[in-house]
Amino acid sequence: EFSIVRAWLQLCSRNHEDSCISFEAPNIPGFQLLNCKTRKLEPYIAGTEYIALSYKNEQGHSVLPQTIEDTLKVTLELGFQYLWVDSYCIPQFGDRVEYIQIAHMDLVYNCATLTIVAACGKNSAFSLPRVSRSRFLQRSITVGEYDIVSALSNPVRDVRNSKWMSRGWTYQEALLSKRRLIFTEKQVYFEC
Q1: How many CA atoms lie within 13 A of 117 on its CB side?
Q2: Contact present, 54 and 118 (Cβ < 8 Å)
Q3: Whose CB has fewer CB within 10 Å in the chain, the N or C terminal residue?
Q4: To the nearest whole number, what is the mean pLDDT of the chain?
């Protein structure tokens, strides 16, 4: 339900403006974003809101991995147009521009309107649950007039045990992002 996530973002914007919204622009030479509508890279224009992706990345894809495809969809569904994905937005030439951008990834995450965290699956081919994959069905039973629903696992524990958490960059991405929409295999939750 993207309307629920939009409501979370609106609530945060109205009530946490000083602590959860970054008003600074990532002043990084060569900084570019993926336009989710055209699927082309564009130079960053100051003031443009964007979503960042934090995921288990592998190099060498000839097509977009499903996690990125799903994140493009989520970005548009949430009313945003631009997405930052390291493996596409940072030039992969091993030159000075790449080095400068990697050195400033703290700004990328700190200035993002939202960071989508793919804390599920073993790699970027896994996808985001409930976007392109069928959703996890929470067990339930109706007894008379009562609906009894099983409790989901603690999402903090799910994230802690995820492949995503094993990455070296994870600490920086999670710590510096002011808002996080975290996809685990069983649920989605929002932190700000």
Answers
A1: 33
A2: yes
A3: N
A4: 84
Whole-model pTM: value is: 0.84
Q: What pLDDT shows up at residue 134? A: 64
Q: What share of the chain is helix, strand, coil (3-state, %, to 5)?
A: 35, 20, 45
Domain limits of the chain?
2-191
pLDDT, tens digit (0-9, with 9 covering 90-100), for 71-85? 999 999 999 999 999
Does residue 190 sit in helix, strand or coil?
strand
Beta strands in the chain (DSSP E): 32-35, 40-43, 51-54, 82-84, 114-118, 140-143, 146-149, 180-183, 188-191
Mean pLDDT of 133-137: 64
Residue 169: name the closest of 22, 26, 20, 57 by CA.
57
User: Within 10 Å of residue 92's Cβ, how many Cβ atoms?
Assistant: 10
The alpha-carbon radius of gyration of the chain (Å, integer) is: 17
